[in-house]
Design goal:
The protein has 313 residues and is of the alpha/beta class. The protein has helices at residues 15-26, 83-88, 90-111, 147-167, 191-201, 220-232, 249-260, 284-290, 298-312; strands at 6-10, 30-35, 54-58, 73-76, 114-120, 171-176, 179-180, 205-208, 214-216, 218-219, 238-241, 246-248, 266-269.
Length: 313
């Protein structure tokens, strides 16, 4: 019989990490979840605690990481990921992208494990190229307030490629575009939970700038499928995973108002510094290399997400 594979998932109690734990348990893996709960919530993985194939470590990956036993794969998803979090915790954000990634690459090397690191569309900064292809190097302000997240992820990609070329380590890099779904935090500052939370509470929806900036929203199940396929592929360079269905913030606010039946108004506040005006992934690589494309429409995904947030509110 084939030996059961074992995977370490950092940021396991976070929005994406917890969904990845579910997926790999479902695929028959032994899953080791790791989180220091800086932005994660233990409730997201509590349902897995009774399972023999799940173990949990409360640990900060910026400190030395030790996991006893064999590991076949590592998914590095530990990091604050919303502007509210990384503006509040700039140094921790930089450390988890640099020291944390270094520690996990070292662990992958010692265990002879394949590692996939979670990068982000934020490596493109406020893009001058649209839509964003993996070959675009980005337009990032390294000393601006958002630079702590953007540059942490850019360094993460760089050190991951260095381990791949110098140590011949099996590495994968995913660039994640805006993703949504159950287990997002209502207070995480991103536009989707902010709008839904405000609409459900009868508050005005807060748009920044004039609301003409765009985002492209991918449902979490689609993203998890893309991550799974990339991990199992043999492609070491960055791959965009996201939904290219682009929408302005104003249009999105109107969608949320219709969906929730809210009578709230849309109000406008100044655009934060270096906030990207456009976000739309070019997913040609994901289609060609992984046979991946998003399947869940925004209307279907929003219905599922709204049902979750209604319980939370």
């Amino acid at each position: 019989m084939e030996k059961q594979k074992r995977i370490l998932i950092t940021g396991a109690a976070g929005f994406l990490g917890s969904h990845l734990c579910d997926r790999f348990i479902k695929e028959g893996y032994k899953v080791v979840g790791m989180d220091n709960l800086l932005t994660g919530n233990i409730k997201n993985v509590e349902h897995l605690f009774p399972l023999a194939d799940f173990e949990y470590y409360h640990h900060d990956v910026t400190k030395f990481v030790h996991v006893p036993g064999d590991l076949d794969y590592i998914l590095h998803f530990a990091s604050p990921a919303s502007p509210i979090d990384y503006l509040k915790m700039p140094i921790q954000t930089l450390k988890v992208g640099s020291l944390g990634t270094h520690n996990l690459l070292g662990l992958a090397r010692s265990k002879n494990a394949r590692i996939l690191v979670a990068s982000t569309s934020e490596v493109y900064g406020d893009p001058l190229v649209h839509p964003q292809t993996e070959s675009y190097w980005g337009n990032v302000n390294p000393v601006g307030p958002r630079g702590v997240y953007d540059e942490a992820k850019r360094f993460q990609e760089s050190i991951t490629m260095a381990y791949h070329t110098y140590h011949n380590l099996e590495t994968r890099i995913i660039r994640i575009f805006n993703t949504y779904g159950p287990r997002m935090r209502l207070d995480d500052g991103r536009v989707l939970p902010a709008f839904i939370g405000q609409a459900l509470r009868g508050q005005d929806l807060t748009a920044f700038g004039d609301g003409s900036q765009t985002r492209s929203f991918c449902y979490v199940d689609d993203l998890v499928e893309g991550i799974y396929r990339l991990l199992m592929s043999d492609y070491p360079y960055p791959v965009n995973i996201g939904n290219p269905d682009e929408i302005t913030i104003n249009e999105f606010a109107e969608e949320i108002l219709r969906l929730t039946g809210s009578k709230s108004k849309i109000i406008y506040k100044p655009l934060p510094q270096d906030d990207p005006k456009q976000r739309k992934p070019d997913i040609t690589k994901a289609r060609e290399l992984l046979g991946w494309a998003p399947k869940v429409s925004r209307s279907e995904g929003l219905e599922k997400t709204l049902a979750y947030f209604k319980e939370v509110v």
